[in-house]
Write a structure and sequence with these properties.
The complex is a heterotrimer of chains A (387), B (429) and C (230). Chain A has 13 helices and ten strands. With 387 residues, chain A is α+β, with helices and mostly antiparallel strands. Chain A folds into two domains: 182 residues, no CATH class; 186 residues, no CATH class. In chain A, a hairpin with a 2-residue loop joins strand 2 and strand 3. Chain A starts with a helix and ends with a helix. By secondary structure, chain B is an alpha+beta fold. Helix content of chain B is 53%, strand content 19%. In chain B, strand 3 and strand 4 form a beta hairpin. In chain B, helix 11 packs parallel to helix 14 and helix 13 runs antiparallel to helix 14. The longest helix of chain C has 16 residues. The chains are: A alpha+beta (387), B alpha+beta (429), C alpha/beta (230). Chains A and C meet through helix 1, helix 10 and helix 13 of A and helix 2 and helix 3 of C.
């Protein structure tokens, strides 16, 4: 028992009284451990974070009616198959031919919040996003062709099916008419610029027909295999709708995301390898510096085994301390990166703490073992006489 | 004598110096690898993002306003771009940033069964030799990389030659009419009819699945639209938009001359669009926001991520070097105490130590730079399948960093050495 | 039987005969000093007696055991059990206090015992400095800690290599007085030195030259308690 106390007393004395040297070694181990735990957290979090960024490309799953149009219940049934945490946005759409100033225009009725989440790349060139009833978000091309500006009021008319027959018979037609305010101009560079967007409720009111949809766009944060799985489940469980993947988005995402992940992985490996070697050389230097002391201990009767035990005990304690500091700093670093780059917090991985600590103990241990061993092989007489 | 002392340390203590050089080399290689990758990652990821297809779409001026609306009614707006102007896209200021482009002509034709079908004429792998001598293969094969070939092959323009009757069709169309690779398909347009041989069937996961893709001139012939093009998709490497680019996109004329120069000479999507508009008569070029905007987001995020990782690894490398330099200089206290005892000035001791360390640092730094460049190439080749380009600016950055870090590493050690009293060192500590 | 006996010991480094046919007997309780100019083989002899080196040829009997045949591992054990070393440069572990440095020898030998270590320090007159680090002690005090460390395991032989080489006169006197005390307590002392004043107080002094014992002088005026050569 006493022997162990002396062992501990020696190690702590070495750590405490040789403070400046030990701080140097500890610093290098802690930096190594920080890089380890920081980069590994980032590596594990990057797919999730970048995956979320790729949702900027908009919907990657489209629901269409299996038999013409479908109802709100069908949309809900389909959405229900996807975990809420992975569903970034969902926007049901209904398209109707309406008229503005007697010219035909396609009106799209949707849930404004859902559309915003599902198509983050839509740019409101002027004005603001569609919010409530009575508002109209015009595609840039529609706005251009009618020379409409934000704030203008305009009548939108719709001819119900029943009235169309009358028109064919050249009778007077009773159109449904509703007045809207143009709140924004939409720019996307795609076909969306040719539509006029309004809330779903307004379109129901205008047409007089309730609860029908043409399509629903879903933006799901999941890898393509998982997406296929969700699509299959929706097709099996929601008979009213057919789910298909937007290949252009999903296929490209898989390609690019896997490359980015490979990039982070490779960078992590290179940085880690080089950092570990750096830690190892520092430990080698720290031990090599104490050859004389090792010689002295041998001269007063220490066996090689007990010298290795003491010095290893010391460097492993350093490794432990460095590992603990490193896991904390690494988490802080990963968190900073995550907040700065992706403006979201990183998930804490408890498993990473013991791994970081063990790796840093092993690396410091191994890198000191070599120089300690070679120091014990030295003739104590030479060390004591030399220099 | 000074030189002799330096030589003495470098050669007789070469093991220690080798270790310092090795650590400096490690740090320098880490720094140069990360800097090279960081500086090139934008271009590389940009290339990768081209899989999302075109980020700029060029339409005829009049059609860009109304074609969409009229096309809903199945009519043609009558405004077209000129096919013979296509080459001009590769003459603009940012020509090297245009990696790919393809023209499209849409023809509403009908099959023998009387059903309507959309025939699209385009380039598949159109070969061009530019006036600059650059060779380029452009077309849908590279611009629709997400198309999955279900059977058959991509139409090879060079093999088929102009005016061939090969076609690629979407899966839905193939399923609907039971078409297979090698099947023949008779299509009647407004002014002519033609028979195509199916070369490949693709799954695009969109509207294209029920369309027929043929060569540009054969599609033009169906409707008698020779030399006319509906739209051009352009895939360009762009710089993520900033506030200036957004202002310029609304109205380039609102900029001051200096701002205009800056904007024009930066590869913003909006400035490339502007230059295309000037090159091609009566056209409107606009960024496809789904692609352009997302590209910008992902690019800037990836770059920022790499910058932060680079900073972390630079700090790590710097501390590693600092540590070792400090430790190894302190180790020599006895030798330096002796030098003091025999009358060396503080200045000459510092000079000696610094010179030794710096010679070591230069050797280590140079070795590390090349090693780091090698690491960067490994990353480039295994991730992107292409080399990371060598940026000259990495050299001074790494050189300055290595020197600064080594110097900082020397400071505490030298301060300690200068405080040493020779007697203390020589008569047992 | 003598405590230590060297029989025709040679130590040869290439061409150089560091020890050339040296024979020597040291009895228990004797105080012997070894003198000689630099390069005469003093240190080689000290290393061989201190079990830190082995002769090229010849026998070294310590307590009847021929240590020239032992492995380096058992040499460590013998050194630990039978020999206490004192060095010119003191060689204290600079981050351990005086008492801890003494305990270090106990630790490698058997079990550290702080009380005993403190007693040893008291014997060398350093009871009040036990908690000081080597850097806080004067040269003489450091050497006295070394003496205490050498004593702590009751070695058969205390082997001192230039113990006063780094000390001023006052401290030299203190250390020599300590040697007298040790001798009076019955400890065998072998002191390697080239300071005639330190050498002359021993019972017997050997002068080495070119690896051979050139002269052996018995101290007629030895003042210690134990005398053999009367």
């Amino acid at each position: 028992m006493k022997k162990r106390r002396m062992f501990i007393r020696m190690i702590t004395a070495s750590l405490m009284r040789r403070r400046s040297r030990m701080v140097v070694a500890l610093l290098s181990i802690a930096i190594g451990a920080t890089i380890l735990s920081g980069l590994v957290s980032i590596y594990y979090d990057v797919p999730r974070q970048l995956g979320a960024e790729f949702r900027n490309y908009g919907a990657n799953m489209i629901l269409t009616g299996t038999d013409g149009r479908f109802t709100g219940a069908d949309v809900e049934a389909g959405k229900g198959q996807i975990p809420a945490s992975e569903l970034v946005g969902a926007a049901p759409y209904r398209y109707e031919n309406v008229r503005i100033r007697e010219n035909p225009v396609v009106a799209a009725g949707t849930d404004p919040e859902g559309a915003k989440a599902a198509s983050p790349y839509w740019l409101i060139d002027d004005g603001e996003w569609l919010k409530s009833s009575g508002e109209l978000l015009l595609g840039a091309k529609v706005a251009d062709s009618f020379r409409l500006k934000v704030g203008e009021r305009i009548e939108v008319s719709f001819t119900p099916e029943s009235e169309k027959l009358k028109a064919a018979d050249n009778e007077a037609v009773n159109d449904n008419v509703k007045e809207f305010t143009v709140v924004g101009i939409l720019k996307t560079g795609g076909t969306e610029e040719e539509y006029a967007y309004m809330t779903y409720g307004d379109l129901e009111e205008l047409t007089g027909v309730k609860d029908v949809f043409d399509a629903a766009e879903l933006s799901v944060s999941a890898a393509s295999d998982k997406l296929k799985d969700y699509a299959a489940r929706i097709n099996a469980s929601a008979p009213g709708v057919h789910a298909s993947l937007v290949k252009r988005v999903t296929a490209s995402e898989t390609t690019v995301l896997s490359k980015l992940q490979a990039l982070v992985l490779l960078v992590t490996i290179v940085v880690l390898a080089l950092t570990m070697i750096c830690v190892a050389t520092t430990m080698t230097a720290v031990v090599a510096e104490r050859r004389k002391e090792i010689g002295l201990r041998k001269a007063i009767g220490a066996s090689d085994g007990s010298i290795i035990k003491e010095f290893m005990g010391e460097s492993m304690l350093l490794g432990l301390l460095g590992g603990v500091i490193g896991s904390v700093l690494g988490y802080v670093f990963a968190q900073q990166v995550s907040v700065r780059v992706f403006s979201s917090s990183i998930s804490f991985r408890p498993l990473l703490v013991p791994i970081t600590i063990i790796v840093s103990i092993v690396v410091t241990g191994l890198s000191s073992l070599m120089p300690i061993k070679s120091a014990t092989e030295v003739d104590p007489a030479l060390v004591l006489k030399g220099e | 004598m000074f030189g002799r002392m330096i030589r003495g340390t470098l050669f007789r203590q070469w093991k220690k110096m080798l270790m310092i050089a090795f650590t400096i080399a490690l740090g320098a290689s880490l720094a140069s690898a990360m800097l090279s990758v960081m500086l090139d990652v934008g271009d590389k990821v940009n290339q990768e993002l081209k899989t999302y297809g075109a980020n700029i779409r060029v339409l005829p001026k009049s059609s860009s306003v109304l074609s969409g609306l009229y096309e809903m009614e199945g009519e043609s707006s009558g405004a077209y771009l000129k096919e013979d102007e296509l080459g001009k896209i590769k003459t603009i200021f940012w020509t090297f940033n245009i990696v790919d482009y393809a023209p499209f002509i849409n023809v509403n034709a009908h099959l023998d069964s009387g059903e309507d079908v959309k025939v699209v004429g385009s380039w598949f792998n159109h070969h061009m030799t530019l006036p600059t001598g650059e060779e380029l293969n452009a077309g849908v094969e590279s611009m629709r990389s997400w198309w999955e070939l279900e059977s058959g092959v991509w139409l090879d323009e060079q093999q088929e030659g102009d005016g061939s009757k090969g076609a690629m069709i979407g899966t839905e169309l193939a399923r609907k009419y039971g078409l297979q690779v090698g099947s023949r398909l008779h299509v009647t347009g407004k002014t002519a009819d033609d028979t195509f041989t199916v070369k490949g069937i693709f799954d695009a996961g969109g509207d294209e699945d029920s369309q027929i893709y043929v060569q540009l001139n054969t599609a033009q012939a169906l409707d008698g639209l020779d030399g006319k093009v509906d739209s051009i998709d352009v895939s360009a490497l762009t710089t993520p938009d900033n506030e200036l680019a957004e202002r310029a996109a609304k109205d380039p004329k609102s900029l001051t001359v200096a701002q205009y120069e800056l904007w024009y000479c930066t590869a913003y999507a909006s400035s490339i669009c502007w230059q295309i508009q000037q090159a091609i008569t009566d056209c409107v070029a606009s960024p496809v926001r789904q692609v352009a905007d997302s590209e910008g987001e992902i690019l800037s995020k990836t770059e920022l991520l790499m910058i932060l990782i680079t900073i972390l690894s630079l700090i790590g490398a710097a501390l590693g070097i600092c540590n070792l330099v400090t430790a190894s200089v302190m180790e020599r206290s006895q030798e330096i105490g002796l030098m003091k005892a025999i009358g060396a000035y503080n200045g000459s001791i510092s000079l000696l130590v610094l010179t030794e360390i710096f010679i070591t640092a230069v050797i280590g730094g140079v070795a590390g730079f090349f090693a780091g460049f090698g690491f960067a190439q490994i990353i480039g080749h295994s991730v992107f399948g292409s080399a990371i380009s060598m940026r000259p600016m990495v050299i001074p950055i790494v050189a300055v960093a290595v020197f600064t870090v080594t110097l900082i590493g020397c400071i505490p050690a030298i301060r300690m050495l200068l405080r040493l009293r020779p007697t203390e060192v020589l008569h047992g500590k | 039987m003598s405590l230590l006996e060297l029989k025709n010991v040679y130590k040869i480094y290439g061409e150089l005969h560091a020890l050339d046919d040296v024979s020597l007997k040291v009895e228990k309780g004797e105080w012997v000093s070894i003198m000689g100019p630099s390069g005469s083989g003093k240190s080689t002899m000290m290393n061989i007696i201190g079990c830190m080196d082995k002769p090229t040829k010849g026998e070294v009997l310590l307590d009847g055991v021929d240590i020239s045949k032992e492995s380096s591992k058992s040499l460590t054990t013998i050194r630990r059990d039978k020999i206490g070393l004192i060095f010119q440069q003191f060689h204290l572990v600079n981050y351990l206090t005086a008492v801890e440095n003494v305990m270090l020898a106990q630790y490698y030998h058997s079990i550290p015992d702080e009380k005993e270590a403190l007693e040893a320090l008291e014997r060398v007159g350093l009871a009040g400095r036990a908690k000081h680090l080597p850097s806080q002690l004067s040269g003489g005090e450091q050497q006295r800690v070394c003496v205490a460390r050498a004593l702590i395991n009751y070695p058969e032989i205390i082997l001192a290599d230039e113990p006063t080489g780094n000390l001023d006169e006052a401290n030299e006197e203190i250390v020599v007085d300590l040697f007298h005390k040790l001798h009076d307590d019955g400890t065998t002392l072998i002191v390697v030195t080239h300071d005639p004043e330190v050498a002359e107080v021993a019972q017997r002094r050997l002068v080495l030259r070119n690896g051979k014992i050139a002269k052996e002088v018995v101290n007629e005026h030895f003042t210690g308690k134990i005398r053999f050569n009367d």
